[in-house]
Amino acid sequence: MNKERLMKMAGAVRTGGKGSMRRKKKAVHKTTTTDDKRLQSTLKRIGVNAIPAIEEVNIFKDDVVIQFINPKVQASIAANTWVVSGSPQTKRPDNLDNLRKLAEQFQKQAPGAGDGTGTGAVVTQEEDDEEVPDLVPGETFEAAAEEGQATAK
């Protein structure tokens, strides 16, 4: 190509000013207030209630902690929905291993946490006697209850 021709073509290219092409469509900037109003109306339909006096919320994800300071917290227990709104900060905790160990210790101390039984107590022989006896095929509950009372006397 000819260098003079390229320079002539480069001079004709411009991005604005007199004689340039106009925009065909105006860019519409959506305000966040309309999004917030729609979100609040949806949350109202779910039936969330504000929970006051929460100073900090931490969400633990893999190796990252999302922290909200003085957030607005709303919850709907029936819908299993929690809303935390505010400005988040993403952090990598230095003592994540310590937090995991602490959580494991807490689960071990809490009765029935994580073992699926619902109680952390050990059943003794005396408590076992108070439970409903297993039925043998062909017997009724009444007959088994009478036998249980007769042996207890």
Which descriptor suits the 3D outline? elongated
Distance between the termini: 115 Å
The level 1 CATH classification of the domain at 34-111 is: Mainly Beta
The CATH superfamily of the domain at 34-111 is known as Nascent polypeptide-associated complex domain
Output the CATH topology of the domain at 34-111.
Ubiquitin Ligase Nedd4, Chain: W
User: What multimeric state do the chains show?
Assistant: single chain
The CATH architecture of the domain at 34-111: Single Sheet
What does this protein structure show overall?
It is a single chain. The chain is an alpha+beta fold. The protein has a domain at 34-111: Ubiquitin Ligase Nedd4, Chain: W (Single Sheet), CATH 2.20.70. It is 37% helix and 19% strand. The protein has five helices and six strands. It has helices at 3-12, 32-46, 96-109, 125-130, 141-152, and strands at residues 49-51, 56-61, 64-69, 72-76, 81-85, 88-91. Strands 1-4-5 form a three-stranded antiparallel β-sheet, with no helix packed on it. The longest helix has 15 residues, at 32-46. The protein is elongated and about 115 Å long.
